[in-house]
Q: What sequence folds into this?
């Protein structure tokens, strides 16, 4: 996807809208697109962290606008999308990246609320992120809607009931949305990160095979979006693992995970989960 080819009639660079842009993958994606000449519309709850990031990387304010929103609150993120449309115009790409992750124990009443928050952010928040842009992109006949899922959504992992469940829902939701967009000219891409070095994985107490930096993930993600991939596991080695996970019989899967450490619960860490 060549920025020159996507430039608007007013001569502005193409626009990408990214949620969860205050840390991790979101910031890495923002920098990747900025370095490729794109204009940025960045969304997060923490405006201050995004401002610090802009200063650190000498981001030109003329090419980067910040929007404060809580993705878990549909009215909040929809308002941010509508503000983007009014102030900057219709993006070429919308990346629903914002996400949270905690371990959970269904026996603990407090963890039901944690699960509710994870689904509100990771699943409903994604649909609410896309909502303001779907009709305008259909009318234009082009655009890309990108959902950040996870290899953790391919099969359930012990202690990951909320996160694995939410990312499985993201995978199915994006597949359904792709069917809805068929023939409209609007591309829907599902990205499934493996283990990426971000605040979200910093507290994990198990091995992280094929660990990628957020910067390398962002580079490969941009390429996958530009190619028009429907679904892409990053890195490719985790794609092989994901394929095996899908076909492994339940009994063997259960046995393989018997001694796997559980992801820390929110009450274990005392801190909110990182952005996906």
A:
């Amino acid at each position: 996807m060549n920025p020159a080819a996507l430039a608007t009639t007013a001569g502005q660079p193409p626009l990408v809208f990214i949620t969860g842009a205050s840390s991790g993958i979101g910031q890495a994606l923002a920098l990747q697109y900025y370095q490729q000449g794109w204009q940025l519309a960045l969304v997060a709850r923490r405006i201050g962290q995004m401002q610090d990031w802009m200063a650190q990387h000498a981001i030109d304010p003329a090419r980067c606008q910040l929007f404060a929103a809580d993705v878990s609150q549909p009215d909040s993120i929809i308002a941010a999308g509508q503000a983007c449309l009014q102030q900057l115009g219709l993006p070429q790409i919308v990346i629903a990246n914002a996400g949270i992750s905690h371990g959970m124990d269904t026996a603990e009443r407090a963890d039901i609320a944690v699960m509710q928050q994870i689904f509100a952010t990771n699943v409903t928040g994604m649909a609410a992120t896309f909502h303001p842009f779907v009709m305008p992109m259909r009318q234009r006949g082009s655009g890309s809607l990108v959902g950040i899922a996870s290899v953790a959504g391919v099969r359930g992992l012990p202690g990951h009931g909320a996160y694995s469940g939410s990312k499985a829902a993201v995978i199915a939701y994006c597949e359904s949305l792709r069917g809805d967009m068929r023939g409209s000219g609007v591309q829907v891409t599902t990205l499934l990160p493996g283990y990426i070095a971000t605040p979200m994985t910093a507290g994990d107490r198990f091995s992280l095979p094929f660990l990628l930096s957020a910067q390398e993930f962002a580079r490969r993600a941009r390429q996958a979006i530009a190619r028009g991939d429907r679904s892409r596991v990053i890195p490719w080695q985790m794609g092989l693992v994901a394929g095996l996970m899908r076909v492994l019989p339940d009994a063997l899967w259960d046995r393989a995970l018997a001694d796997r450490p559980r992801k820390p619960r929110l009450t274990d860490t005392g801190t909110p989960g990182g952005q996906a």
User: Anything to note?
Assistant: DSSP finds ten helices and nine strands in the chain.
